[in-house]
Known about the structure:
The chain has about 525 residues and is of the alpha/beta class. Helix content is about 40%, strand content about 20%. It has two domains: about 5-90 and about 125-280, P-loop containing nucleotide triphosphate hydrolases (Rossmann fold); about 290-535, Class I glutamine amidotransferase (GATase) domain (Rossmann fold, 3-Layer(aba) Sandwich). The protein has helices at about 20-30, 55, 70-80, 90-105, 115-135, 155-165, 190-205, 220-230, 250-255, 260-265, 275-285, 310-320, 330-335, 345-350, 365-375, 385-395, 450, 475-480, 520-535; strands at about 5-10, 35-40, 60, 70, 90, 140-145, 170-180, 210-215, 235-240, 290-300, 325-330, 350-355, 380-385, 405, 415-420, 435-445, 460-465, 465-470, 480-490, 490-500, 505.
Amino acid sequence: xxxxxxxxxxxxxxxxxxxxxxxxxxxxxxxxxxxxxxxxxxxxxxxxxxxxxxxxxxxxxxxxxxxxxxxxxxxxxxxxxxxxxxxxxxxxxxxxxxxxxxxxxxxxxxxxxxxxxxxxxxxxxxxxxxxxxxxxxxxxxxxxxxxxxxxxxxxxxxxxxxxxxxxxxxxxxxxxxxxxxxxxxxxxxxxxxxxxxxxxxxxxxxxxxxxxxxxxxxxxxxxxxxxxxxxxxxxxxxxxxxxxxxxxxxxxxxxxxxxxxxxxxxxxxxxxxxxxxxxxxxxxxxxxxxxxxxxxxxxxxxxxxxxxxxxxxxxxxxxxxxxxxxxxxxxxxxxxxxxxxxxxxxxxxxxxxxxxxxxxxxxxxxxxxxxxxxxxxxxxxxxxxxxxxxxxxxxxxxxxxxxxxxxxxxxxxxxxxxxxxxxxxxxxxxxxxxxxxxxxxxxxxxxxxxxxxxxxxxxxxxxxxxxxxxxxxxxxxxxxxxxxxxxxxxxxxxxxxxxxxxxxxxxxxxxxxxxxxxxxxxxxxxxxxxxxxxxxx
Length: 537
Ligand code: GLN
């Protein structure tokens, strides 16, 4: 079968859930027997998402091979249940660096290097290379941003050329548009969508499928209008209404028979998809009634997307255990500045996650919260910076090292219990140079970590950090009951846990990136098991 490309573009405004639509199409096609990959195009000039503030861009999703990518790759991995590569995220920064490097090497000797054809050729090459390397039947390519953005133009142009080159039956254009509902009249308005489709057609792309993001299903009238003005047959127009959980989106689209349209357009035979396990998972997410209150201690709490994979990992584990997760957010700066009393936190929750992070703001607040949590005996999971905060708090309040700190926060601390990793000392360039990606972690037999990972000797989790627990202090921590339960060749304390605790565990890695709806991360499951046991006991 020739490679099929499905492009997903967005209209009217960003944040419509194009990533979830892309992931949903992937899931449906995979369940129909095809091999699928998904590619995210980000038209910004950064080479990758690694250098962006989470407030600008949400979480940085880390791939197995150490890519610092857009959070949509997380949706793709979770829905498709596959590992993607850093190559699955293409940015303007990446494309232009390659083109400029080639120009300097003399590969375009004698030519004037231009957006068309040189930049668009590079874009096409990167898309096709990923799809071919991963040997898939279908590659779904989501073009980030909104149609009409200047930065997105070369990518849309490349998509248009790909249709010309690969043919009508090998390419499909899906446009996701906002169809707002007026609160005064309850009417669904299609005009913004019409304009967006017109803009797309002006560029030379006629959408084959329209997906309307609206609060409710499309009315017959709205569908007619979209069809007429968008030049798309009614059977290829789909509603993407508000749902309780994003995991429902593939089911909603499937019910409207989106696969029929895709298989007709691309002339592919699809098996009847078996969505039983997925449906059961969605049902559990929606119906679980036993609440578990999870304290989320962090400093990017005003934009929940900053912690997207952690939130999803908690949902996966909750569904498996039939729990209803209730997230309680504690902004570290509010604790620091006295707007939240840390002593009240443990009473409010059944367990807590000390979230990842960078830099000084909020650290004191986190330390205060962690002290109360540790002393309360409530289950606590620290992730990356979260582990480092647990270590600093323990050093200060148990080992008695006043002013102990991470050298990231205080380079002159007398007790550098968290310090820059040896391999990071010569790093001068900040983009893409952290300790990144999946690495083997050896578990220490007899520990809680060993138990929650089902007795595995070695596990692989993804990393993104420069600092680590200072090896010089590890013996002392261990002597006081804060023991190492996971190690690796270049990081002595990959996982630490309080001996004989219900669950007081910190991990330098980010287990959230590998959590999947039908196979939750053992660490998050362990935390919630401990939390519900704690409530019962
Ligand atoms: N800032 C810390 C480090 O670089 C932790 C990073 C994180 O939480 N991802 O080691």
